[in-house]
Amino acid sequence: MCANHFTNHTLLGNNTQQTPLNTQQTPLNTHQTLIKTKNADNIVSRESTSPVVPRLEQAQSQSASIPKVIIRAEPTLARILKTLDADYVKVQQEALLSVLCQVLTGKSFELILSVAIVEGKLRTFVTKLIKFNECSKQPLPGSGGETTKTSHTRAMLFIDVSFLMLCSIVHTYGSEVVLSEEGGDSFFEQWVRECMVERGRPKCPDQMLQYCEPGKVDALLGQFNSPDNDFKTSSSSVNCVPPCFSGVKWHEVCHNVPGAIKEVLLAWEQGAVTSNDVKRILDVMRSRMCSLPVFATAWLCSYMQILHQDALLKPMNMVQQFLTPVANEESTQLDNFKERSGLMFQVIRKMQYDVFPPSQSKVKAMTLSHSIISRQPVSSQLGDVWEGIQKRGWIHIQATHSLESLLNTSGCQWFVTNIVKEVLNYRYQEMLEQAVDLAFGVFHLDIEKCTLALLLHVLPQYLHNRLQSEELVEPQASALAKLCAYCVFAALEYQNNSAPGSRKRSRRDKESEDLEGMCPTNKLLRTAPETSDPASLFGAPHPGNSSMSSSSSTNHSSPPVTIREPLQSALAELFHMLTVVAGRDGEVSQRTHFVCKFLQFLVQCGNDRTRLVLQGMPNTMVGSYKHNH
């Protein structure tokens, strides 16, 4: 029976091959009265030359050839491991460098790693690569001296090729997977333990500077600041030793790079150098050796983790500059510079994401502008963007991108604090209402985190700081109270709409919900001036549309609305603070007036959500407020 099946299949295949155009000719021949013979022949010839069928056949052939490619790559991996098994003293460095550079070409590196994983030899490959990296960090003992070419080859072998390959492997698979459990004392393993940026494993930036020597740091700064845009590999310029053929100890150069990049950052912060000077220094740093920016980025990322949000912009700009395309034509013409720079970009980008993971915002994904293009402080940049959208009365795309960049660069606390300051600068009711709507729209870049920053950091400053509490006068107090109430209910809606158990919504549903359900944008408010009730902004049913609301509720059943962490804890802490402010004996002030306004807007805006939000309010809060006032 199986033989008959294969026979029939073969006959079917032969028959199909003999009549490849039956699917086009049959309907055309049956309607000869509707189409001319010439036109029918043209259609058949056009369909016969269609690239769709070859593309499908090509895709199938590529899928079938993947196992063959892996099988063919197994001998290549074996030859590489055999080459790495050789004695470093006897092997020719140029030949070894050529072999490793060939591995970096195209997709060869990924293919070799895939084969190593399949055969269980990934850790073996890493161990042998670490051995050669360790041997090439300084000249061989008893070798007398090395020429400039030999020094350059050793630098390429140690810094740019083997080190970048090891960094890429460790970042991809994890240090606990590819490195030995005992923990070796090689330069690379020590650098991974003390310096490499890993998520959940913060490193001390001061510890990275313990190997720095002032003289060598100054020598590196001189190299990076040289006008010829070249990084010399001679021992006299880098290692501060008498010139001749005594070789450079490249691991010492790598140890001193964090000290040099720290001096550049401090000089930039103090105004001793301009942004153009910093850009030129960073370009020189990566013009020849692609691993030097990796050492600099490791220190910058660790340093940013202990900085205040206001001081993050400059070091983040320096990291981002390393990720820009290289404009130096001489550098791009070097051997395997494209492959080496590609590995450098991959490693630096992974470090950057480990320190500052990309946030999920409602704005469509795009590349943020963190390049060194402005000498203004971030507060001035925010002021310029805010002034522009306030004049327009709406938030355009370019302003949205700039605001998202400032939010991700400076953090929610700084961002919300300064937005609230901009809102409270207005004195007239109409401008204040527009500013509240704009600020509410801006906070939707990350509504949950911005709401938490508003409730836990901004409001306490205005309620407990006597100087800032003087700004809580009318109409500013009502504007701030309204903004807080808007954000509370918007964050509540966001939590429930993005709940793990909620139904999966399409992209169109999410976009329509953003426009209609959650945020009272300025445009919607202006097109519907008759809607004066704030409760309608958050999905409250209109009295005249009770039938429509009841029918929609029957058609679309939704899970019950609940308050979850961290919003629940933030509201509990806020109500506790408001109770303390409202219960002060015999004191009537701007702060107690703000408490009253905030509760008023919670009731007006929330409708059926108000009871849920106010359930965490102490029972004695309203009574003590009425008793004292």
TrEMBL record:
Pfam families (UniProt xref): Med24_N
A GO cellular component entry from the record: mediator complex
Region of interest (Disordered), ranges: 1-24, 498-562
Extent of Low complexity compositional bias: 10-24, 546-558
Organism: Timema monikensis
GO MF terms held by the record: transcription coregulator activity
A GO biological-process term: positive regulation of transcription initiation by RNA polymerase II
Predominant cellular place of this UniProt entry's protein: nucleus
UniProt name for this protein: Mediator of RNA polymerase II transcription subunit 24
InterPro entries given in the database record: Mediator_Med24
Similarity section: Belongs to the Mediator complex subunit 24 family.
Keywords: Activator, Nucleus, Transcription, Transcription regulation
Subcellular location, record wording: Nucleus
